[in-house]
């Protein structure tokens, strides 16, 4: 497979940035706010769920409040990337913000669970364009060689969302009511919208081609089927049930049809030629596995710490500080080194090694593991993910031409999203089965009764159990955690193998190494000679 060097750091980027070198800070701030909105939403809403159900009812449909949002986000992600490539990223991004804000406002006004689920789907449609828009616009504004400097910002936003989400959600719900869990998006989104409208200047595009509606439809059906299988399998329906088998069949048929149609479509939603780049394909694989591992860890680590180590559920975001802090610090270092040296192959390799080691160490935790020890293990995992989170997007964007920046960003984001769905589903199924088996073995009929509804108990339910049953449950959770993280470490080995084959293709926009790009930069009257847009910020 030949690696495509493309033109990701020049061309359109130079045109757009000549108009606004002094406003890049404002644009980046607006982009980070939009990214925060997309990542923070589910975590804030998750904390408010008990209150929402108490007021609206509809407990049996509770999971759909999250599922509808996730489905709409995943299904719309590739389409937003393609629309941005065809008609201009600024317009597509602003439209996605508006749709997200409309969905947020409507969700806050919902009068029953059915309305809330429908409005959450609208919100998810907008959210699908937020992350893609952020990544693609940064790809337009800042050459890959300089983009590493901003990795810390993106990793910081991610860490902030995971830590602050439950805290903010709990505070808002307790003092302002659950509806403000949605309304809080409106002022933040308005700031991002105003800043993007005023200071972001990118070349306008007018494609004569029509959107590939058939391809978009097939991909949507395929993605929807996959997400439903991973969401429902083992919980709503047994893995071998007719519903799950039918969804798998529909999903496989839709995706096969999608791949075939993409070879025929005039303007494909996901042009297959981007996968001719070995680096792009490898980054898609590594991104999928990173999503698989990260969201599995975010799900099971707080559960282990609450059930086995006796930590408070209120501070569940703070429990992840060792992992998120290490991820943030390493991501910033990796970005700086990449910018200064132009070298990046070492990071996927080191990141995959640390990620595999961290997961294996976490799999060794038992009922006697101290918080300090588990914190060290989490830091190892976080360091590995810090090497991988932003590098995968950077290398993927560097592997395609400028005209495909949107679909490259959306495809990489989609693979990470699908990875998270598979990770939560597969690790969750393994965890639940192990907990149920251990409870039945250690506590007999009482153990089976305790876990017949769910293998995951909250702190209040755990406190009500007899001492013997509680100790059995703590052992069962540590055993389930062992199985889940051991599986994660095995899957992470695939990322390590993939990273070995990454090619060190020079990053575009490397300052002194590209005189033509320097000349383009010098054409902007307020940018000093030999200075890139990123350096002028």
Q: Would you tell me the structural class of the helices and strands?
A: mainly alpha
Q: What percent of the residues sit in helical stretches (DSSP H or I)?
A: over 70%
Q: Find the count of extended strands (DSSP E, 2+ residues).
A: 0
Taken in chain order, the helices and strands follow as HHHHHHHHHHHHHHHHHHHH
CATH class of the largest domain: Mainly Alpha
The first-to-last residue Cα distance is: 37 Å
Q: Provide mean pLDDT, rounded.
A: 77
Radius of gyration equals 23 Å
How much beta, percentage-wise? Answer: under 5%
Q: Sum up the overall morphology in one term.
A: globular
Name the poorly predicted regions. Answer: 1-21, 510-537
Fourth-level CATH superfamily of the largest domain:
MFS general substrate transporter like domains
Supply the number of structural domains.
3
Please outline the major beta sheet.
Answer: none
Helix count from the secondary structure assignment: 20
- Quickly give the CATH architecture of the largest domain: Up-down Bundle
CATH topology title of the largest domain: Growth Hormone, Chain: A
State the gist of this model.
By secondary structure, this protein is an all-alpha fold.
Write the layout of secondary structure elements.
Elements: H1 12-18, H2 24-56, H3 62-87, H4 89-108, H5 113-141, H6 144-147, H7 151-175, H8 180-183, H9 185-199, H10 213-232, H11 242-262, H12 278-307, H13 321-341, H14 346-362, H15 371-398, H16 405-451, H17 459-463, H18 467-500, H19 515-522, H20 533-536
Helix pairs in contact: 2-5, 2-7, 2-9, 3-4, 3-5, 3-10, 3-16, 4-5, 4-9, 5-16, 7-13, 10-11, 10-16, 12-15, 12-16, 12-18, 13-15, 14-15, 14-18, 15-16, 16-18
């Amino acid at each position: 497979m030949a690696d495509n060097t493309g033109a990701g750091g020049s061309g359109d980027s130079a045109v757009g940035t000549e108009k606004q070198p002094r406003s890049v800070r404002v644009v980046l701030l607006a982009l980070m706010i939009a990214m925060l909105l997309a990542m923070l939403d589910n975590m804030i809403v998750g904390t408010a769920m008990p209150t929402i159900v108490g007021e609206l009812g509809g407990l049996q449909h509770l999971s759909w409040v999250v599922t509808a949002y996730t489905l709409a986000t995943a299904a719309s992600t590739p389409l937003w990337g393609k629309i941005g490539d065809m008609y201009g990223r600024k317009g597509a991004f602003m439209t996605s913000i508006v749709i997200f804000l409309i969905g947020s406002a409507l969700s806050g006004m919902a009068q029953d669970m059915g309305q809330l689920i429908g409005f959450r789907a609208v919100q998810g449609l907008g959210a699908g364009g937020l992350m893609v828009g952020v990544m693609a616009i940064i790809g337009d504004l800042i050459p890959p060689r300089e983009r590493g400097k901003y990795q810390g910002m993106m990793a910081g936003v991610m860490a902030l969302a995971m830590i602050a989400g439950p805290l903010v959600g709990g505070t808002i719900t307790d003092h302002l009511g659950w509806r403000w869990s949605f309304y809080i998006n409106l002022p933040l989104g308005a700031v991002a919208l105003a800043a993007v409208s005023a200071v972001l200047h990118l070349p306008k595009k007018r494609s004569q081609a029509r959107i590939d509606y058939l391809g978009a439809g097939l991909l949507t059906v395929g993605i929807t089927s996959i997400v439903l299988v991973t969401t429902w399998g083992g919980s709503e329906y047994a893995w071998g049930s007719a519903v799950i088998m039918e969804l798998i069949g529909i999903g496989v048929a839709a995706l096969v049809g999608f791949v075939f149609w993409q070879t025929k479509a005039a303007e494909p939603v996901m042009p297959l030629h981007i996968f001719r780049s070995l680096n792009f394909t490898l980054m898609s694989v590594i991104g999928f596995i990173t999503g698989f591992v990260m969201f599995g860890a975010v799900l099971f680590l707080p559960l282990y710490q609450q059930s086995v180590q006796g930590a408070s559920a209120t501070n569940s975001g703070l429990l992840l500080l060792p992992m998120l802090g290490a991820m943030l610090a390493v991501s910033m270092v990796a970005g700086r080194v990449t910018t200064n040296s132009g070298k990046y192959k070492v990071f996927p390799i080191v990141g995959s090694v640390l990620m595999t080691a961290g997961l294996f160490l976490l799999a060794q935790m038992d009922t006697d593991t101290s918080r300090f020890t588990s914190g060290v293990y989490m830091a190892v995992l976080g360091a590995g993910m810090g090497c991988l989170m932003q590098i995968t997007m950077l290398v993927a964007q560097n592997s395609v031409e400028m005209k495909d920046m949107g679909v490259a960003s959306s495809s990489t984001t989609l693979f990470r999203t699908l990875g998270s769905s598979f990770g939560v589903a597969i690790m969750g199924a393994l965890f639940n089965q192990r907990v149920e088996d251990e409870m039945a073995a250690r506590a007999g009929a009482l153990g089976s009764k305790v876990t017949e509804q769910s293998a995951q108990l909250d702190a209040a339910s755990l406190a009500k159990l007899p001492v013997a049953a509680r100790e059995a449950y703590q052992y069962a959770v540590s055993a389930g955690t062992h199985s889940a993280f051991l599986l994660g470490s095995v899957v992470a080995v695939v990322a390590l193998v993939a990273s070995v084959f990454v090619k060190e293709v020079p990053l575009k926009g490397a300052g002194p190494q590209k005189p033509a790009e320097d000349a383009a930069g010098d054409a902007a009257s307020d940018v000093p000679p030999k200075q890139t847009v990123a350096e002028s910020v």
